[in-house]
Amino acid sequence: MSCLSVFQLEKEPFSTSPDPEFFYRSNEHYAALNRLEIAIRLKRGLSVILGDVGTGKTTLSRALLQSFYGEEENYIFHMVLSPSFKSEYQFLTHLTKTFGISPFFRSTIDHREAIEKYLFRKCVQEKKTVVLLIDEGQKLMQPHLEVLRTLLNYETNQYKMLQLVILGQMELLPRIKRIKNFMDRISMRYILNPLDEYETGQLIEFRLKQAGYKEEKSIFSYEAIRKIYEYTQGYPRQISLICHNAMEHLIMNDGESVTAEVIESIISKEKVWE
Ligand SMILES: Nc1ncnc2c1ncn2[C@@H]1O[C@H](COP(=O)(O)OP(=O)(O)O)[C@@H](O)[C@H]1O
Ligand SMILES: [Mg+2]
Question: Is the minimum distance from the CB of 170 to ligand 1 under 6 angstroms?
């Protein structure tokens, strides 16, 4: 039996996939998303979002794509989900492929020229905005960052031809600081922090509602939410995981609501794995 039938839900409320429908706009997430969207619309060039594992960077990127639904005529999004490449050449090859440029080039210079031509065609001739979104940005090594820096050099008198969004863990920061002129090119930077206790509760309620929960009565007690916050420190991934376990616990035990005791027992089982 799943929690879907027991609580008459239409969807899994605490899945850990980055579904934008379950994206709760906390103050942090809202500000980051809003600023990103503006940076792209104004063609400001480079945006960097940093945050620990599980703060919601990937989910945020999916919500960003959703903000541009229906605008495919004017905005072209390209994604690199895991930029671990052995060399500058391999990275450039991957980028040309991602941009849909025919891959028959021999040298790094050929690749760069092809990308520049592509950007010129899309941005200047066709008047579109090209966005390259790189997730797991902490995997970018020095040579890759150098490549990205040169791509940001392509500009008209008014705007950058490539809108680059890098999302990554904090360890990316010292690496970009080491690259000359990289930091000053960042037009929008944001560090995604975890939620506070109030927003932890709001996120839980929001996800249940999105999953189709219609009752007035909360499934999670106030004390349970406090415990969840204490344990997860407001990290959305941790919140999802613990809530998923709590719902499972309820169903197995024919319970109706998640109490502080339920959360305590889940935490004590989790701690064995730490
Ligand atoms: N704003 C949010 N609202 C609801 N759930 C979120 C939010 N941010 C993250 N999550 C959830 O947390 C988990 C981890 O998010 P993810 O985007 O993968 O984090 P990161 O990429 O920073 O490691 C996912 O299950 C996601 O659904
Ligand atoms: Mg991620």
Answer: no
Q: What is the pLDDT of residues 64-123, one digit of tens each?
A: 999 999 999 999 999 999 999 999 999 999 999 999 997 677 789 999 999 999 999 999
Is 168 near ligand 1, meaning CB less than 6 Å away?
A: no
- Say which ligand is closest to the CA of 61: 1
* Residue ranges of E strands in the chain: 46-50, 75-80, 129-134, 162-168, 186-191
Largest CA distance in the chain: 66
Residue 105 CB neighbours (<10 A): 18
| % the chain with pLDDT above 70 | 98
List, in order of start, the domains of the chain with CATH numbers.
Answer: 3-11+196-271 (1.10.8), 27-191 (3.40.50.300)
